[in-house]
Design the sequence.
């Protein structure tokens, strides 16, 4: 199955911001409920130790990413690691809720383009279930931006280009009908766009299938790395599956190679 660069509805500039926020809230609820990225903790811990990083700049954070659970796995002392959430279309209410529910998680309120990260946001960068949004030239620009700034980066994707993963998106699209009343912050409009006019389930299904079709495989990530120029970096690419999860997570991590 080849990679297809289709569009995801909720990332388009014309898509209503209010419904986009409700969709990122649903996605965030699913991440928190499943703790899907917990298996990445050892990988991230190793990279952060290698770079001696105590701050993470999370790009394309959506409603907050996996950090509520993941941050607790990365540190004994909750104040030892600081995570800064960012997004091109920041869901500020969701960011505020995540900050209030945690220690060590903050957010950057302005729009952040992952291909051109502001110079003041200097530290190890992460992306969860978002790298597939970008066309090949944009994906290359994201990696080159990290290398040019001398910053480490970790990319993690739970979506896959496979018939099984696409099939699971149909089940995923049904979850709003069950969990919408429990999603916070509560919005009456979310009930409208779920139960009366099921726009949210439709967008979750459409964008979920497209996400699978757009996801980069390890070999394609390796080809991107081969085109980078600049400082010598230590790169690690693969698919990680823990004993507690049968869903492999595709990952790419890179950081400056230690000087001899």
Sequence:
């Amino acid at each position: 199955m080849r990679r297809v660069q289709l569009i995801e509805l909720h990332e388009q500039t014309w898509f209503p911001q209010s419904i986009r926020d409700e969709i990122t809230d649903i996605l965030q609820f699913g991440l928190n409920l499943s703790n899907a990225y917990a298996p990445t903790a050892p990988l991230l811990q190793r990279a952060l130790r290698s770079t001696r990083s105590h701050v993470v700049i999370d790009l394309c954070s959506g409603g907050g990413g996996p950090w509520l659970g993941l941050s607790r796995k990365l540190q004994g002392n909750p104040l030892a690691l600081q995570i800064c959430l960012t997004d091109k279309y920041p869901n500020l209410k969701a960011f505020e809720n995540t900050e209030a529910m945690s220690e060590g998680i903050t957010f950057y309120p302005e729009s952040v383009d992952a291909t051109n990260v502001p110079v003041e946001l200097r530290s190890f960068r992460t992306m969860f279930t978002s790298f597939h949004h970008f066309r090949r030239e944009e994906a290359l620009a994201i990696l080159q931006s990290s290398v040019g700034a001398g910053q480490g980066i970790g990319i993690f994707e739970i979506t896959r280009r496979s018939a099984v993963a696409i099939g699971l998106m149909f089940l995923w699209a049904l979850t709003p009908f069950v969990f919408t009343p429990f999603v916070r912050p509560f919005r009456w409009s979310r009930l409208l766009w779920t139960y009366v006019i099921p726009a949210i389930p439709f967008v979750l299904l459409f964008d979920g299938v497209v996400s699978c079709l757009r996801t980069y495989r390890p070999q394609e990530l390796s080809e991107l790395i081969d085109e980078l120029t600049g400082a010598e970096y230590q790169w690690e690419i693969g698919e990680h599956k823990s004993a507690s999860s049968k869903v492999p997570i595709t990952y790419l991590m890179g950081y400056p190679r230690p000087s001899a």
Remarks:
- Residues 17-34 form the longest helix (18 residues).
- The CA atoms of residues 170 and 205 lie 6 Å apart.
- The two ends are 42 Å apart (CA to CA).
